[in-house]
Write a structure and sequence with these properties.
Blueprint lengths: L15 H10 L6 H11 L13 H10 L6 E7 L5 E6 L5 E9 L2 E5 L3 E3 L14 E4 L2 H16 L5 E6 L9 H12 L11 E5 L3 H8 L6 E5 L5 H7 L2 H4 L2 H15 L3 E7 L7 H11 L4 E7 L13 H13 L4 E3 L13 H6 L1 H4 L1
Parallel strand pairs: 4-7, 7-8, 8-9, 9-10, 10-11, 11-12
Antiparallel strand pairs: 1-2, 2-3, 3-4, 5-6
Bound molecules: iron/sulfur cluster.
The site of iron/sulfur cluster (SF4) has 12 residues, from loops.
Length: 354
């Protein structure tokens, strides 16, 4: 691992308002912000030198203060279904995962917000080495840009973003919020709020804070269990942020934003996938404006969970439907590559996850 060296901040960390402020401090005209955003997000410039309508002195000042290339592609895997999984290296040698999923409604990118994670979900490879550091907003934006550059080759765009990669986004709240504002900005990547989903393991104070941001962004809760005992076993965070309190926060979010919430429910063979669990889950959420995503969990070698059989998945889904719950089984993406969160990083960079 490289020593932490002094690095320049990524230009992609700047919101439009930050860039305008910086330009003013440099004695530059604020209209330059629109030109720079255009180069970064519409023309996808690979260097400041390419920004031909900027004066030379400004290009030099930008290069002196900011980095533009922040991610190096280490691994790129492509699945038969078109899913692409990337392992990117950061300036300090750490690596992160990003996934592109091709849907019939568009191209969705799943981004990472932290190097590792400290939440400790028992089914997750990403948390095995703990948290190394938070990503900057620019490092999160750069993941989307990298994928967009690949889609540029076939004339397509990133239309959806899900923050469901490595890390707990609400544990890196400020940078995550800057990231959201940058990609949502019509002068930036212009990805609609309703096309963005943030997924949390349930950091309750941040759910309230996020609700009060008054955005139309989708919120997903990693629930994975219908009761306190089981959830604590699967997700130790449930000891700090208890299920009944989590449900209150969820209700607040729904009331405040009018948005439907998603519950992510990973099915682990013989653990949380029985009909009795489905009935208990239905009882827990029946009064909420919500939707359940059932996720047939991939076998994670480091953990002892096994996949739920197809029949059992359908039985679970049917039981929820009979109870009037909106539910879908998430289509598996990239089943033939290392698709589960953290698997690729754990495999390629064993040193980081110890
Ligand atoms: S599932 Fe998400 S929140 Fe839980 S340990 Fe893994 S990365 Fe962290």
């Amino acid at each position: 691992m490289m020593d932490k060296m002094q690095v320049k901040p990524s230009i992609y960390s700047l919101k439009y308002s930050d860039l305008k402020e910086w330009l003013e401090q440099q004695g530059e005209k604020s209209f330059r912000a629109a030109q720079i955003f255009d180069w970064l997000y519409k023309k996808r410039a690979a260097s400041f030198d390419e920004m031909t309508n900027l004066p030379k002195s400004l290009k030099e000042a930008l290069a002196e203060h900011f980095d533009l290339t922040t991610l190096k592609t280490i691994v790129k895997q492509t699945s038969k279904d078109g899913t692409m999984k990337f392992l990117f290296e950061l300036h300090d040698g750490y690596s992160i995962e990003t996934v592109l999923m091709r849907h019939n409604y568009g191209n969705s990118v799943c981004v990472t917000t932290q190097v590792g994670c400290r939440i400790g979900c028992t089914f997750c490879a990403s948390t095995l080495g703990g948290l190394k550091r938070n990503l900057s907003a620019g490092e999160i934006v750069a993941q989307v840009i990298k994928v967009q550059q690949i889609l540029d080759e076939i004339g397509e765009r990133v239309s959806h973003v899900v923050i469901m990669g490595i890390g707990e986004p609400f544990d890196n709240y400020e940078e995550m919020m800057s990231f959201l504002k940058i990609i949502n900005d019509e002068k930036g990547l212009n990805i609609g709020a309703r096309h963005i989903t943030v997924s949390t393991s349930g950091i309750i104070p941040k759910i309230y804070q996020f609700a009060d941001e008054n955005l139309q962004i989708n919120l997903a809760i990693s629930l994975h269990a219908p009761n306190t005992e089981l959830r604590t076993k699967l997700m130790p965070i449930n000891k700090a942020f208890k299920l009944p309190d989590l449900m209150k926060a969820v209700k607040y979010y729904i009331d405040k934003t009018g948005r439907r919430i998603s519950f992510e429910y990973g099915l682990f063979g013989g653990v949380n996938d029985q009909v009795e669990h489905a009935l208990e889950l239905a009882e827990l959420i029946k009064d909420l404006k919500c939707h359940v995503n059932l996720i047939p969990v991939n076998y994670v070698p480091e953990r002892n969970y096994v996949r739920t059989s197809k029949n059992q998945i359908f039985r679970f889904e049917r039981t929820l439907k009979e109870q009037g719950i909106n539910v879908t089984i998430r289509r598996e993406h990239g089943h033939d590559i290392d698709a589960a969160c953290g698997q690729l990083r754990a495999k390629e960079r064993k040193i980081e996850t110890r």
